[in-house]
What does this fold into?
Amino acid sequence: MYKEKTIPVYIKEIYQETNDVKRFILASVEGKLLPRFNSGAHIATYLKREDGFIIRQYSLTSNPDKTDQYQIAVRLSNASKGGSLFWHEQIKVGDELHISYPKNDFPLSFKAKHHVFYAAGIGITPFLSMIQELSDKGSSFELHYASKSKEVCAFYDYLRKHFSNQSHFYFSKQHNRVSTSSLEKHPIGTHIYFCGPVSFIQEFTEAALGIGYPKSSIHLEHFVPVQPMNVEPFQVITKNGEVIQVAKEQTLLEALLHNNVEAPYSCRMGRCGTCEIPVLKGEIDHCDSFLTEDQKNAQRSILTCVSRAKSGKLVIGI
Amino acid sequence: MKWNDDLEHFPYPFKGSVYRYSNNSIPMNTPISIEITPDYKDEMLLKRNLLTHHPERCYQSLSHTTTGQWEIVNLVIDQLVTYYPQHFSVEKKDAEWTFHNKIFDETHKFTFQDERTLPCEPLAFISHHVQEDLLFMMQRDGDLYLDAGQLCFPANWSLAFNLGMKFKSIHHPIPGFKEEGMDDRILQFLMRLEAGNPWERKNWSLMAGDRLDTSLETFDKWGKLRKQVTRENAGELVHLRVEVQKLFRLPRTNSILFTIHTHLLSLEKLASNHEWLKQFYDILSELPAHILEYKGISLYRDEVLNFLNHRLKGGKVR
It folds into this structure.
């Protein structure tokens, strides 16, 4: 499987932002500068536990050009299975951990004439670097930020101080709720960005599509779910009827090559797409990071270097 | 000009006995975008001469690429001084950089991210110090665009023509590339490149002559050599042209640096390695017409096959 390179960092400072949100300042263990990042980017954090690593993704909330340290903000989730709970209760100043290089699945549109951000709760985090960048460039933007109250509204003071002209707050405890009707007020050429709970994103996306926003003008933050790898032996039937067994500790690609099937390949880690072959029958357990969700759901091709059968048997087109 | 024809270090591109277009990328072990070879001085003099006298075909950029160009300067200089400290060094005092190219005995002082302190654009500046062609692909609004580049040694294409084009439009002329779904797949791969995890691949073609600067604009000067190939002169005249291509995600601008290092090897030299001779003969014999045509081999394929076959049978031509 694909194993990304990581950067060793330590916890430089910790701040209690609100009752359930903490901010963490991370700096390089080796005293090196950290990479600049594209606004909207996140990092994966690797927390070492007795039984392996907890990997969690957090948006970078610092200035994209600041390279001596990064900042992330973590909300303590009630449903925490260890990620945010560990950040809140275990992590202390001086602790070391590994982080990924910054990556961005939620970039600013290049062609937008005006940017509008809708955040609910901790969904504010990716927008902090984005509005910083737009502000530096002198671009036009506005922020609509929903929270329960001023007291639990993370980064409220910061936003009031630096972006008071562009920021609109909605506190539900004061019966002031953000409404999809504000989507109707943005000029042509506006790109809209949603981040928050799934229900919030769904409601606003549907409303925007209903109003007539082009799909390409609507941007959502979504993290790639971690693929559970269910490793079981299975068999494949090739084009000429040959039955090939794939052992538990073997990849499909290895089994094909072992049986002298001329299967294409390159990276062997589910990233480059070279080893993709057609699947005619059977259900696939996709473990790659190459195919799109639609391509995976179509169940018509497999990346032999990492993916396996869900159904015990696959008929392949090679 | 005579190149070193270095058999031992030649990046031989083939595996198997059949060649088809594929994404044959592999992850890089050592993240290095450039390579200094024994031909450095000769190639750099040729390159600098081309950049000076033919800027329109060797250098192009769009105005929004300046930040990305500085990212390239940063990445390339850091790698030059890390991997070739005997040839390059840099002193950084905040934003004040002093860069030394010891091979040419040059010192350049400039302020990082201040174009006014350089004699030319940042990408053009760093191009004067590396053998590679440097291309900048910007990821914006869900697609990849060739937004800047320095290209002195193209394999029959034009930077001026392709500037600002999308990835798929650039590759549109390759027969079968779209039909086989390669364009979608490779675009998908590129858009998911991650910072800190660079990739490399090799591409190849055959050429009559040993010119590095085979631009589309100068086809009239070098294309006619294809008509002069005979079995007798193929060993000297015809060269295997291999591009080592490297792909780096630039995290600040979420764009991609694509470097191309072109290597030439005469068929005479190639034939001195029996394994390569046999493999290349098999590949060329089997190569479909559309690939032969696109790679510009059709006109003299038979002569080259005759030469290779003659060598396989142990014959010396002269």
Summary: The domain at 234-316 of chain A is CATH 3.10.20.30 (Ubiquitin-like (UB roll)).
